[in-house]
Specification:
- By secondary structure, the protein is mainly alpha-helical.
- Helices cover 23% and strands 0% of the residues.
- It folds into 2 domains: 56 residues, no CATH class; 30 residues, no CATH class.
- The chain is extended, with a radius of gyration of 17 Å.
């Protein structure tokens, strides 16, 4: 951790969509792939604000691996996303 916690700490999966202002990219000074958790920790250590939004009702799937892509049709066919905005 970059600092001590101010209260109870709860484990959460680290996933999602990241929205950042262009100024934070000065912290990414390593060429090539960069571990995103290290990036956020360096921001916090430097006093930059890092916020999170809990989306308890969201449905996520890791599409970063080819083996997971084969599951996409199966998941959509079984109605996994029915009832969410943009679905029928």
């Amino acid at each position: 951790m970059a600092r001590s916690a101010n209260g109870p700490v709860k484990p959460f999966p680290f996933m999602g969509i990241y929205v950042m202002c262009p100024a934070v990219f000065e912290y990414m000074n390593t060429p090539g792939p960069y571990p995103i958790i290290d990036f956020f920790l360096s921001l916090a250590k430097d006093g930059r604000r890092v916020n999170a939004f809990r989306a308890n009702e969201a449905r996520w799937m890791d599409l970063g691996r080819k083996t997971h892509l084969s599951k996409v049709h199966e998941i959509f066919d079984m109605g996994y996303f029915e009832g969410f905005i943009g679905t029928k």
